């Protein structure tokens, strides 16, 4: 029996690369063009590619991503690039007759400053976090577009999974573009090799975050391919537990062997006070992450030392 042909967008990103190195991905015939091979911002090129290769399913993991600094610095491109990429791949798939699509959303799609775990029905019920509003608007628009396609034509099933924050192998570690855990690894490593006595933390360190190892998301995507017909239109993927930013710094310091102190710059933005996804749906359907934080941090730091550190 021939293998199912699946198009993976964003194959050069953290999610894409973790998925491509997952051992079970060999069960499928994966199309994984990089951006220089297929510019998702160009609808004609997207449509021609889909008509040529005729994938049976699409996993849309491409996106312009970054931490608070990058989002604040480049709000236009975070909105426009993500909107264009998502719209083109979804509408290209629809026009090409591709019936199954898994859209990778983001927990940034949820309203800001909600203290309880975020359930899928909270989407579009409140104000978005200002520090990454453009990115969030784009991701929300594409998720809704997937829903509308499926509603308008029931033979199409376009579904969105919403992962919590991620870290892991193939992450971006440059401070200007990195998310929290990658940025902390870089900062603490640099402090250690430079014999610095302290590391600065943005904010008071009390904001809470949920970070899952990217290899676990790859596992969840494989599971989602196999469980596709059972998936709801929207489903969170996460740990269901969170920690303070200070605790992440301490965990990273332990892995790296940094014994200095942490100071706090309370003038810097920290984003949402808490962002924790509710994982009841994924649990009911039978999926749970496997990698604990210490193991995930160790694997990430080993990758950093091998691929990134100078």
Q: What gap, in angstroms, lies between the N and C termini?
A: 47 Å
How does the overall form come out from the CA principal axes?
A: globular
Under CATH, the topology of the domain at 5-169 and 211-240 and 277-290 can be stated as Rossmann fold
Helix content: 40-55%
Q: Which structural class best describes the helix and strand composition? A: alpha/beta
> Poorly predicted ranges (pLDDT <50, ≥5 residues)?
none
- CATH hierarchy, class of the domain at 5-169 and 211-240 and 277-290: Alpha Beta
Q: Find the CATH superfamily of the domain at 5-169 and 211-240 and 277-290.
A: NAD(P)-binding Rossmann-like Domain
H and E order: EHEHEHHEHEEHEEEHEEHEEHH
The CATH architecture term of the domain at 5-169 and 211-240 and 277-290 is 3-Layer(aba) Sandwich
Overall pLDDT confidence? 94
- Largest beta-sheet characterization: 6 strands, parallel
Computed over alpha carbons, the radius of gyration is 19 Å
How much of the sequence is in beta strands? Answer: 15-25%
- Total number of beta strands: 13
Count every helix, treating DSSP H or I runs of 4 or more residues as helices: 10
Order of the strands making up the biggest sheet: 2-1-3-4-5-10
Describe this structure in words.
The chain has 310 residues and is α/β, with parallel strands linked by helices. The chain has a domain at 5-169 and 211-240 and 277-290: 3-Layer(aba) Sandwich (Rossmann fold), CATH 3.40.50. 41% of the residues lie in helices and 16% in strands. It has ten helices and 13 strands. The strands form four sheets. Strands 2-1-3-4-5-10 form a six-stranded parallel beta sheet, with helices on both faces. It has a three-stranded mixed beta sheet with strand order 11-8-13. Strands 6-9 form a two-stranded parallel ribbon. The radius of gyration is 19 Å and the shape is globular. The model has no long low-confidence stretch (mean pLDDT 94).
